[in-house]
Amino acid sequence: MSDVPEPSSAGPSPTTRPDASPRAARPWLRPLLRVAQVLLVAAAVYFLGAYLVRSWASVKDYDWTLRPGWLALSAVAFLLFYFMQAVFWWLLLRGFALHSPFPTAAATWAKSILARYIPGNVFMYLSRAWLCHAQGLPVDRVTAAMVYEQALGVCSALVAMALLFPFWEYHPGATALSLVAIPVLMALLHPRVFAPLSAWALRLLRRPPLDVTLGFAAVLALLGGFVVSWFVAGAGAWLLARAVTGLAVDAMPLVIVTNALAYVVGMVAFVFPSGIGVREAVFTASLSRLLPGGVALAWALLLRVWVIVIELVFVGLVVAGAGLLQRRKGTA
Asked: In the chain, where are the structural domains located?
């Protein structure tokens, strides 16, 4: 871990009055943005619902299946994905010299992901920061770990897409660009690049820059783990499709890429809580080449419900396990 000095121009000027901030000067902005967010989500849900209604004949006549074995494998894959994400969060904390036992760190991460369905998306990060603060962890380093988590999540999803692009859509020029993108994304995570880039992004969000950054070797190791996790999550999505639609094995690369792409688009469209509506639209557009459009949308909606169920099971298991270990330590 290498220290990065805090730019002196990143914080507010000593002469700046708190009540002179743009947010304080425009109290009407937050309610307006909230109304716009609700309208956008409602519009996305309406258009997806209308498309599903128009395509209901193809959905009803499709030869749906239910293969419990493939469904169980899908559940295992998604549970493994969430477990890997919890491990990465614990490793990020350790990278910033924050010593939290793994069961506690995993339970904190698990609890916080339930807040991402609250409109605003920021509640997931606020809840995790509050939980970590209650454990005595400094909020500034916890925030740095969360910044890296999001950056690694997006970059690793793009790397996974670049790696698989030649296997589902081979065009010499586009394939070459996808492979070139891999070292470019890695370079963006180098401390000399990531520090000023993250400072600029945090300044837009009216947040102070990071005081410390991770060493490049640690970042690359975490990036590799995140990439593997996207393969696991994409395999879980394909296994669900295999269980209910009979999607062939050769469709797996496309499903993995689409799952990673849906995550990135959902992050960009941050006004949609957990990418509701946006992720389903991405899945529908991508899988329409393999399935009827209505069937692709119905499966995408089923995937949303399936992932929520898996999330709840994962959170319950991790929180219960952490509580059990804590009680055993208390009675020891």
From this structure: 65-331
